[in-house]
Specification:
The chain contains 1 helix and 15 strands. By secondary structure, it is mostly beta strands. The chain has a domain at 32-124 and 193-260: Umud Fragment, subunit A. Strand 3 and strand 4 form a beta hairpin.
Amino acid sequence: MAAKADKKEGIWETVKTVFWALIIAGVFRTLFFQPFWIPSGSMKDTLLIGDFLFVNKMAYGYAAVSCPFSVCPISGRILASEPERGDVVVFRHPTQGVDFIKRVIGLPGDTVQMQDGKLIINGEPATYEDMPDFVELKAPQGSQQLMPRCANDPVPEGGQCIKQRMTETLPGGTGHDVLNIIDGWMVDSTNVFTVPEGNYFFMGDNRDNSQDSRFPATSGGLGFVPAEYLIGRADRIIFSSAGKSLLYFWTWRGDRFFKAIH
């Protein structure tokens, strides 16, 4: 009888351990980090389809609450520290109720303009340095099997898909790569945007393949993003898979494991 009691007590202790481990993991996810899987190519070549990362929800000094519904923000929430220009940030789309990831380009009060594919922030042009072309396979990518756009289209499936790559250095900031697919795209030249107080202006690094703050939310774009919709900063890629499923281990990108995001 004693052996049965000990066995029953051991099972109960295991159940309690698993229960508390799940509770702790849930609290940790809610308060500190949130997993994010890159579904699209709008942030190439900084982030590739299939990159998996954890979002640092404490980067701006508060613990954001994960929201499963379209109504996400906490009314009156104030950032303890402001995102910096150039940060890669995950946020809730203000009108679509889904999570996006883009780069902070404009801070509250900034003016932002694109002229011939080049950024001007507060009247100061960003600087650009030509880099080797970004080359990838013209093939369906990720779980959605998205086909990449190429500067050298038409490219047959299986061919080399090429995009022009430059290092862009923002005024007062650090450099990061941006890609160009076509000159004279619809938002390669824009009017001057003035970022309202409490809002941010976001853009994708794959400039001709990104529905971002250059497009108003009323037309299906992003528009300005209020601070209360920010979730956290993306600091490091944990894992990356080039295949349709993460289980396809032969498609894992070993060179992207634990890669810092700039």
